[in-house]
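Exercise 7. Given the components listed, write out the predicted structure of the assembled complex. Treat all entries as one system.
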Amino acid sequence: DQQVKQNSPSLSVQEGRISILNCDYTNSMFDYFLWYKKYPAEGPTFLISISSIKDKNEDGRFTVFLNKSAKHLSLHIVPSQPGDSAVYFCAKFGNEKLTFGTGTRLTIIP
Amino acid sequence: NAGVMQNPRHLVRRRGQEARLRCSPVKGHSHVYWYRQLPEEGLKFMVYLQKENIIDESGMPKERFSAEFPKEGPSILRIQQVVRGDSAAYFCASSKDRKDTEAFFGQGTRLTVV
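Answer.
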């Protein structure tokens, strides 16, 4: 039972354009959703989060949108930079633990 | 100000041997989580520990796997009689508080069973 789904395993975006990463969830019980970024051979690093009572959170180039009726959230990165190339995981925080999606590999094309 | 430290970074074990993975949390953090990432998959929760207590082990395989977080020293994830299917990257994360959403991850231990 995969509670958090990232249906796009990979995404390529031109440098300077907007990157949009998507995440769907099935179980409505959660406190927060978080996005983590992961480089090869490194652990995930926290990027941005959104609480269940909000529909948008912005931090610099990163904005996360939460659509509770559609059980969908998305991460927008604008403008995209070469250093953004990584695997992005969305994760649900509930019951005191994180449940991760399978990740989306973002490649920024110079 | 060290982050989460995991060692070893790489571990090779023959089938049937034991694997011990160590995790030292961020200084001042008393909550530790272990996650496993199989090839081409996301991170799967295994176990959540506080000092000397297992809080949630719902993601741990029923046999051969155990975890501890003693009063002194690092958290240990122990896999007995390893099999090829145990080959994965094992990540440890720590947080200050059980309600702390932002867990800090270590660099992981890549276990290869040959």
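Discussion: The interface with chain B takes residues 4, 6, 31-32, 34, 36, 41-46, 49, 89, 91, 93, 95-103 of chain A (CB under 8 Å). Chain A is about 0% helix and 55% strand.
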